[in-house]
Structures
1.
Amino acid sequence: MKITVMKTEHDFDIAAAWRIIGQMLEKPSAVIGLSTGQTTKNMHRIVSDIYKEYPFDTSKVTIFNVDELTNLDRSYPGSCYTMIYEQIIRNLGISDENFLMPPTFSDDFDVECTKFENALQERGGADLQMLGIGWNGHIGINQPGTPFERHTWVSPMDPIFEEKVRRETKVPDDYPLGGLTRGIVDIMQTRKIVLIAKGESKAEIIEKAVRGPVTTDIPASVIQLHPNCEVLLDVAAASRL
Ligand code: GLP
């Protein structure tokens, strides 16, 4: 596992953006997995800015997000579809066909999970996953305790994030919210993983994920077992390493 520490948050954003651009330039038909959240907002903007200034062929690039909220309309500004569409897809002129996202509503999410994985496989599997990490070590939406061999599924969300979504969407307390997420075993099949984190608030969980034992208590610790993984941090997130 390679650990890269950038001096400032801005340097981190730029370095992370270049991991995405670099993959697209290296392999014009790359299949790239993104993550939503505060960590990735600026890097997605920088990718868009670089593309605007120095456009290149994106017609064969496939983009997907590692997870998506279920049972909420895609038009909810917090849906992964909307965030990734606004932050990247429309700016890079990626076609609808090459933006792979599972639906947010379905009568049978098991079927949707299989369809999503099959669609990725049909394109040769994921080349790169820019992987965020949650405060409790979750990756995608896989929470602590998720078996590493779990395939793509609908997972409960972490309680803090769920609270935020419920507040924003005003859904009733008993409304079934969840997240369709690539399973840990599927994420691990990605040819290259870049685990990304910035800010002091991520320092402790990064220490656990990178230096602690590989355990389902900290889902992100599984990346220690990946043959081609980079952990990209700013100094604040790396402060306990
Ligand atoms: C959510 C997303 C994850 C993301 C995590 C971290 O749970 N589903 O994919 O990695 O948030 O978000 P942030 O970057 O805002 O800390």
2.
Amino acid sequence: SLSNDVLLESRGLTVRFGGLFALNELNIDVRNGEVLGLIGPNGSGKTTFLNVISGVYSASAGKISLGGIDITREKAHNISSYGLSRTFQRSRLCLSLSVFDNIALGAQRTLNNGLWHNVVQRKAFAAEARKIAEEARELLGVFNTALPDKLFDPAISLGMIDRRRVEICRALIGKPKLVLLDEPSAGMTHDETDQVVDEILGIRKSLGGLTIIIVEHEMGLIERVTDRCVVLNYGKKICEGKFRDVAADPVVREAYLGQ
Ligand code: ADP
């Protein structure tokens, strides 16, 4: 029953930790090309949803499909090769490596293992490495900064906001279909967050067709970047629609007040 407009579909998706239902028979459609905000009080299951669709957790029941392919039982590395990538709340950059190497780690998704290993080891496949460097420069150029010139600087020399940009670029290398952004504002000031918002909008514009799921506490960011929101509470979907509509919904207001 998958329509062409739907990129990711979950049906009856359930994740249990012992007796706790972190996700409880969740049906979510993520449409092609949309920015979907996943919101809800603490502990409502947002991170669990990202983890189960990216293969970090396995589903206790239900089904997930991506681009019409059943990925419910797939391992994380296979799911990423189908075009799903993500960022994490806490930075996962290797600080001793260069910006380029960190971004090339993201390209592992689209290359076979041997090829990727050679790129990182600088052994062979110079053409492949050059292609990645070119794409990395292009992506870094989306952010209106000097980052493209810092491609071979160690990540440790970058400030917080540049590190976040590099992580986003790592998720974007190799043209994924679906990108999961887990709290892109985490650890940043209000101004920095505003900047990242503008940049996410810019990325979306320059990479036509990209679909994004964003988990975020900063409601201003959710309001500005999302086309639609799904609101979770106790692992269930309690509301969906445009941010301003869900934000005004009494059921949603009560869920947030209850926390
Ligand atoms: P959110 O991201 O909305 O804050 P989470 O998805 O992190 O919520 O958590 C949903 C529920 O599942 C919480 O009650 C949390 O304690 C529980 N949970 C999440 N991950 C685990 C885990 N690995 N083991 C046990 N319980 C977990």
